[in-house]
UniProtKB/TrEMBL annotation:
It holds the Pfam family adh_short. It comes from the Bacteria. Gene3D superfamilies: NAD(P)-binding Rossmann-like Domain. One of its GO terms (biological process) is monocarboxylic acid metabolic process. This is 3-oxoacyl-[acyl-carrier-protein] reductase MabA. Belongs to the short-chain dehydrogenases/reductases (SDR) family. It catalyses: a (3R)-hydroxyacyl-[ACP] + NADP(+) = a 3-oxoacyl-[ACP] + NADPH + H(+).
Length: 249
């Protein structure tokens, strides 16, 4: 993974939720292509391990701990600690097990919305204007297939991801004219530990997906890098599905 490719040479990239799962693949892929990556999450030990792995391969990375469910002050602290960034990947998210709407507590609603919607909202508000002042940048939000289609007992999680897709489009209108491109990736099931632990839930849906399989984290990361990079220079407000074709059928 030595950074011999210069697609993101010297660009600073903050990847939230990069202590585990998809975020690790995104952080490693950006670092392998020359970016200086700020790895973030709550778990310092896992964050330090990701940073060590990137550095061992010749890449550049630092860890900043942050709990994105803890409110505005914590989000602002992360934005300040990250410094001026050219790329923001709003990846951190919490999945909720399928539950009838009537059984979703207000506490669970607020917890999901804090991490999945309010944190990326506040982080983008903190970083996108500075990107614009420096001449441009890119934000990639991680949405979900569940934000594009309905799902039985999935109202809580799905609605947070639909909000992420909606924010992507409004922010494209707001920040695009200043050179900040805002796009989203909408993954279907990804073979992360989280999805593999929920195999009982994920397994049956694979039969409905044209590719008949989950995406690898690396396949989703490739789409994130495409949207973050100059090959997507005139792509604004897109929600790119990486779902084996699920949203199409
Ligand atoms: N896996 C899938 O099948 C799938 C499908 C579609 C979309 N997605 C989306 O893809 C993104 C990544 O999912 P994943 O499967 O990689 O999840 P994951 O394995 O559970 O990892 C989630 C990451 O987010 C971080 N995180 C969670 N809560 C946080 C908080 N309060 N503050 C800061 N960081 C927090 C975790 O770090 P710490 O534990 O260190 O805080 C971890 O690094 C999410 O937005 C998810 O909704 C996933």
């Amino acid at each position: 993974m030595s950074p011999n490719n210069t697609r993101f040479s010297d660009r600073r990239a903050l990847v939230t939720g990069s202590t585990g799962g998809l975020g690790v693949a995104i952080a490693k892929a950006l670092a392998a292509e020359g970016a200086i990556v700020i790895v973030s999450g709550r778990d310092k030990a896992r964050g330090d391990a990701v940073v060590a792995d990137i550095r061992a391969r010749g890449g550049r990375a630092d860890f900043v701990a942050a709990d994105l469910g803890a409110g505005e002050a914590e989000v602002r602290r992360l934005a300040e600690a990250a410094g001026p960034v050219d790329i923001l990947v709003n990846n951190a998210g919490v999945w909720s097990l399928p539950l009838p709407t009537a059984e979703v507590s207000e506490e669970a609603l607020l917890a999901s919305y804090r991490t999945n919607v309010i944190a990326p909202f506040l982080l983008t508000a903190a970083l996108a204007p500075a990107m614009a002042r420096r001449g441009g940048g890119a934000v990639v939000n991680i949405g979900s297939i569940t934000g594009l289609i309905g799902g039985d007992k999935s109202a809580l999680y799905s609605s947070t991801k639909a909000a992420v897709h909606s924010l992507t489009k409004s922010w494209a209108a707001e920040y695009g004219p200043a050179g900040v491109r805002i796009n989203a990736v909408a993954p279907g099931p990804i073979a992360t530990d989280r999805a593999l632990e929920a195999a009982d839930h994920v397994g049956p849906v694979l039969a409905r997906i044209p590719s008949r399989r989950m995406s690898t984290p690396e396949e989703v990361a490739a789409a994130v890098l495409f949207l973050a990079g100059d090959d997507a220079a005139n792509i604004h407000g897109a929600v790119l599905s990486v779902d084996g074709g699920w949203a199409a059928v």
